[in-house]
């Protein structure tokens, strides 16, 4: 049996996510927007809660097309607040819409959200060598720097802890513990880019 990060054994959804997505370097604009939305939605909740609702989020947020989400108005937000398949928190929903607008503006200014976000790690994932999950910090000075920059640009629900979760999800950092079979696999995928 393959050794995994211990959190991945709690539920089959977590196992699949861990084994196929978590920590894999991500450059696709729409997928990066997806993780911005999902990590903000997770604030104060478990990642398993988000994964269970992931398909509903995808439908609710136009398959994470930032151009479509940016056009959401009060009626769309009211509809989302009635959707039992997602997290019905007004501030989080409104931040997803506002963040889509800022995301598009940033793309227009810089050409690529991916290039912008990867500039925080100089285009290469940070590979950590944690022995236990307890060693993994909830945030770092770098996630604090990212948070501050995103907030200055107008993004919401992007505190240092949310930014660090985003960095882990999008593969800007490899936080698989060293005895997890994915630690080396994710590192190899990053080299093949």
């Amino acid at each position: 049996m393959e050794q995994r990060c211990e959190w991945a054994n709690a539920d089959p959804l977590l196992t699949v996510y861990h084994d196929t997505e978590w920590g894999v370097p991500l450059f696709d604009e729409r997928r990066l927007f997806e993780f911005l939305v999902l990590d903000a939605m997770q604030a104060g909740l478990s990642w398993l809660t988000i994964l269970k609702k992931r398909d509903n989020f995808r439908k609710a947020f136009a398959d994470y097309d930032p151009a479509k989400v940016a056009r959401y108005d009060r009626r769309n937000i009211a509809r989302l607040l009635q959707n039992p398949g997602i997290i019905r928190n007004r501030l989080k929903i409104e931040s997803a819409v506002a963040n889509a607008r800022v995301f598009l503006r940033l793309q227009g200014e810089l050409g690529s959200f991916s290039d912008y976000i990867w500039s925080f790690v100089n285009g290469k994932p940070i590979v950590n060598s944690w022995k236990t999950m307890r060693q993994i910090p909830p945030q770092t000075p770098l996630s604090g720097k990212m948070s501050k920059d995103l907030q200055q640009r107008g993004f919401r629900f992007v505190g240092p802890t949310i930014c660090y979760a985003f960095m882990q999800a999008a593969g800007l950092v490899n936080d698989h513990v060293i005895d997890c079979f994915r630690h080396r696999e994710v590192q190899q995928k990053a080299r093949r880019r």
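The chain has a mean pLDDT of 96. The chain has one domain: 6-192.
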